[in-house]
Amino acid sequence: MEEREGEVRWDGLCSRDAATRAAALDTIGQAILRRSETIAPVAVVPPTRAADGLLVPAARDGLSEVLARLLMLSKRCPFPDVREKSEAILSGVQEIGIRIPRPLGHGPSRFIPEKETIQVGNEDAMMHTLFADSFAALGRLDNVTLVMVFHPQYLESFLKTQHYLLQMDGPLPLHYRHYIGIMAAARHQCSYLVNLHVNDFLHVGGDPKWLNGLENAPQKLQNLGELNKMLAHRPWLITKEHIEQLLKTEENSWSLAELIHAVVLLTHYHSLASFTFGCGISPEIDCEGGHTFRPPSVSNYCICDITNGYHGVDEIHASPTGSIPSTESVCEVEALMEKMKQLQECRDEEEASQEEMATRFEREKRESMFVCSSEDEESAPTRDVSRHFEDTSYGYKDFSRHGMHVPTFRVQDYSWEDHGYSLVNRLYPDVGQLLDEKFHIAYNLTYNTMATHKDVDTSMLRRAIWNYIHCMFGIRYDDYDYGEINQLLDRSFKVYIKTVVCTPEKTTKRMYDSFWRQFEHSEKVHVNLLLVEARMQAELLYALRAITRYMT
Predict the structure, then answer these.
(1) Least packed by Cβ within 10 Å: which of 49, 120, 278, 381?
(2) Tell me, what DSSP letter sits at residue 139?
(3) Average pLDDT, stretch 311-317?
(4) How far is C-alpha 20 from the chain's CA centre?
(5) Catalytic center residues
(6) Are 16 and 154 members of one domain?
């Protein structure tokens, strides 16, 4: 949130120094109490919405926004002194007759019971360092971080990469970076990410008029709309002509370095939208849908909870880990392990011919077209999100629909390791290295466990998930036997993967619950990390190949 006329400044709370935080908290407390006393005992009204759909300051000098921010700090700040003082300030405001907000929902994810996530204040030393780093960089500890922290090694790499893309020296100005994040997240109607980056965009001095719609942004950003659309939904259609159009548009042209930065940001936020929907990430406490000023009802659920998607019913669906193991779901784990063992034995005994391998890839690619969920229905994006991009009807389409043929993308001809990595590093130094590290951590991450079983080699399963995602994008590894995918990934799992990767906004809790029913939530989050990175790399491969072709 932008500071208002110097009255409430939040910067000092991000300091590692306790004395600096204490001074900032005193100043914040005094400013809020002064503002509160001028309107007591009239209750604060929640933020209202302007006709154009943008959040505008609430009545009473925007006090409700400030109180929502304090509520977030009291629950989500990694520094205990800030949590305690924020709570004390809220209590002081309440004592003078002003209604204070309360959180909506149950923890950082709608799919994972709050008691099974890491509680802020109960984290170990390594996690605390990650939380403090994230808070210092962003001024918040967001719900994505609180779910990703199931895998601290990956989270550290993710935060480092995201910080570099958004805040360190680079070809694009800061407000462009956040606006591109908004454009990318909006392609999947991801209001969670759009809301976060609207706030960040304004905080770094972005022009609020741009938020009224893409047509109000500079022509240079409008020109990026077509690439954003294709990358998000049909990256196989990107050609060197699309790249040439962006680089040679006279006064609104992009430089190669700027374009690489933009492409990495677009792919980062498309895949992060997949994670957000795939893990059921809840709205941030201080954002719309994350808090309410209404008192709780007798049953602990009021109509505002229900309209925001927080049903008591969700709690009835016991978590996969918390439920009593059914024979069927225990057998599911055993059967999967047995298939892995048999496939390994077959590998050792005989190897399929290149022709057979190619046939199996084409078969799997074709079959992936017919994997769709029962929830698969067209949903029109709301005006609130759709104004950040053009052509709202343009979505994911399978390759060979309506007789359209897309040539297979052979990794042997253009790969991240041999081609993409060096191109990114050359035009946007260090980013190739950061992305490479993140891809490798996600792909190789293992605890050698499957549900309750220990000392299990899961490499075959991880490779099947990664290669299935790339197969859906037409990307083929000549040395991989695609027959393994059907052996290891059942239909409910394929439905979940395809939905999260291709149309994440259609992901439901039922889909999340229906695959790998006896696995830990941390293992399902691990699957989502594979989906995020495999999707990002697939999009990057198509964009970088087109850029390489333009350059040669």
Answers:
(1) 49
(2) S
(3) 40
(4) 32
(5) 190
(6) no
Pair 205, 175: CB distance under 8 Å: yes
Same domain, 153 and 69: no
For residues 158-179, average pLDDT: 96
For residues 451 and 515, membership in a common domain is answered with yes
- pLDDT tens, residue by residue, 423-463: 999 999 999 999 999 999 999 999 999 888 999 999 999 99
Inside any domain, residue 311: no
Q: State whether 400 and 487 are in the same domain.
A: yes
CB 187 within 8 A of CB 386: no
* 415 and 505 assigned to the same domain: yes
Whole-number percent of the chain with pLDDT over 70: 81
pLDDT in tens, 316-347: 344 444 444 455 555 788 888 888 888 887 77
Task: Output the DSSP codes for 339-382.
Answer: HHHHHHHHHHH----HHHHHHHHHHHHHHHTT---TT----PPP
Residue 61: left if φ>0, alpha if ψ -120 to 50, beta else—which one?
Answer: left
Distances (CA, A) of 479 to 28, 352, 358, 361: 60, 10, 10, 11
One domain for residues 90 and 142: no
Residue 120 lies inside a defined structural domain of this protein: no
Burial class (CB in 10 A: 0-12, 13-18, 19+), 526: buried
The answer to whether residue 47 sits within a structural domain is no
Q: Is residue 55 part of a domain?
A: no
**Do 220 and 278 share a structural domain?**
yes
The domain in which residue 438 lies consists of 125-293+328-376+383-551
Q: What is the pLDDT of residues 83-106, one digit of tens each?
A: 999 999 999 998 888 889 999 888
CA Rg, the chain, in Å?
Answer: 24
Contact 381, 190 (CB under 8 A): no
Total tally of structural domains belonging to the chain:
2
Instruction: Look at residue 8 in the predicted model and tell me its pLDDT.
Output: 76
Cα angle 213, 218, 222; round to 5: 65
- 113's CB contacts (< 8 A; 6+ apart) are 106, 107, 315, 319, 322
Residue 383 has pLDDT above 80, yes or no: no
pTM: 0.86
Question: In which element (H, E) is residue 453 found?
Answer: strand 453-454
CA distance 457 to 450: 9
Do 252 and 372 lie in one domain? The reply is yes
